Amino acid sequence: MRKCMGILLVIGCLTLSSCFDLVEQIDMDHQGAGTIKATLNLSKSRTKVASLLKMKQFNGIHIPSETTISQEMEKVVRTLKSTQGISDVQYSLDFNNYIATLSCHFENVQALNDFSKTLSGQFKIQITSYNSYRYDRTSQTFTRSYTYTPNLAKEFSKIPNDDKGLFAEAYYTNIIRFDKSIQSQSHKNAKISANKQAVFLKVKATDLINGSTSLTNTITLVK
Question: Residues 171, 21: contact at Cβ < 8 Å?
Fold first, then answer.
């Protein structure tokens, strides 16, 4: 069975490279509409990635070709374009520096959740089972709910022990921007920007994999 790469090739980055950055940016107005952009940057390990992409398998894990990756991304884009509430879908794949991006506009938070649902269906991974968003316009509260899934640790366990330590340089960054000032946010490791209109969170990939950190956060805007 084909092993697809997950949202912006996340599964691929876990199996191909020990040094990467995954950045998710959400820009949302106080009505609940906005844009989401995900960027996977493997450029720090591009030599290793280039070598692995020439292989069919690595430690028993199927390695997709550049052609397959492009085809899968095009399928995702077509599906997203037909998803209600989603528009302006764009993507880029840089196979010189190994940087991939995927972005779109969402009409409301339900469409943002449908974005995750669409990716789950396309890539056969359960994004929506452990990650979802909610926005209450009355209380001006944006909530991200996250539940740890042991599947991450299961995939990680397939990597040789000698290579696991190299994941110390792999990070996930989440940036959420608003058009109004932020009153508060609940994540102990997240920070509110100086202009009070963005929340920044950066965590180690290994902490997400072993479940020692969470992405759950509640952000309240100034009414």
Answer: yes
114-140: pLDDT as tens digits:
887 777 666 555 444 478 999 999 999
Element (H, E) at 128: none
Q: Could you give the CA distance from residue 13 to residue 17 in angstroms, rounded to a whole number?
A: 5
CA distances from 156 to 16, 42, 88, 93, 152 (A): 11, 17, 34, 25, 6
Nearest to 106 by CA among 136, 83, 130, 127: 83
pLDDT in tens, 33-44: 999 998 988 887
- Following DSSP, what letter does each residue of 174-188 receive, concatenated? EEEEESS-EEEE--T
CA triplet 38, 53, 16: central angle to 5 degrees? 55
Write the DSSP symbol of residue 50. H
pTM: 0.84
- The closest of 98, 91, 125, 104 to 42, measured between CA atoms, is 98
Closest alpha carbon to 8 in 57, 33, 41, 54: 41
The C-alpha atoms of residue 198 and residue 189 are separated, in whole angstroms, by: 14
Residue type, 177: R
Tokens representing residue 59 in the block: 């430690």
Amino acid making up residue 167: F
The DSSP secondary-structure symbol of 43 reads G
Local structure of 166: helix, strand or coil? helix
Write the pLDDT tens digit of every residue in 69-99.
Answer: 888 889 889 989 999 999 999 999 998 888 9
